[in-house]
């Protein structure tokens, strides 16, 4: 697995968040190193910050100007929990560039992981929120399309719904957005009825789950919705918004997964298409490191998941299938 990261990403500080802090970066990298010691092939690669053309594919020019000018003036507040310092613009550009590089590597045949901060999946085309400034997963998907992927899937297992990725691609049939997340919860989006609009109708797939959901419910979501739709879509690349705040130790998530479950998710997805992972949330440092370790090992092996799929689907999964049945044969 190729690893895209940069030590200067730790210079970004969001003074409004006690959770998305610089210490997350070395914790995640320690997880990748633990995977290497356990036998995974992990190699760091150099990359460039996201160029203006790529950023304009997913964000409005005036919004990009706002981010740049806010950082150049020393920082400022963009959202009740999202602030910038003087390093935030360069860190955000690096994070988006790492995600784009991971997508290119995966398309070339080697799975890749952009271990970055700040996270990105809440950033909309013209709005920062939820600790996010530039949408890293969207940048990865856009780069893959530009490199000829044809169809790209973005699968989000962060505990929070990725409203930004959904908004950016809501009417684009080239990008399938799939999310399994806690609901009701921040940011208040991600209902099963949100399925896309116009030519993108049917290409947004949401599986909202109740608080305290654990591995059996997530396994049902993967088996009953996410994997069947993904196979039917036949993407040239899967970008994973790899958030780890659904871990049972996380101070924000309120779910019941452990690190082995994330490894199983990665292994299952590796068998479906080329895989590029992008770090999102995850705020308990020990859980973050352990989860990154298992994710790298799972993505490297592509072996069978450690959890079992169940034919007895819970109601949230059955409901998502009913809503999606008008678009996907595998949901009927």
Automatic annotation (TrEMBL):
User: Which GO terms of type biological process are on file?
Assistant: epigenetic regulation of gene expression
Question: Which InterPro entries does its entry note?
Answer: HDACs, His_deacetylse_dom, His_deacetylse_dom_sf, Ureohydrolase_dom_sf
Q: Can you supply one Gene Ontology CC term for this chain's record? A: cytoplasm
Instruction: Give start-end of the signal peptide.
Output: none
List each copy of the Histone deacetylase domain by range: 20-296
Any one Gene Ontology MF annotation carried by this entry is: histone deacetylase activity
In the record, the note on similarity to other proteins reads: Belongs to the histone deacetylase family.
Protein known as: Histone deacetylase
Which species expresses this protein natively?
Rubrobacter taiwanensis
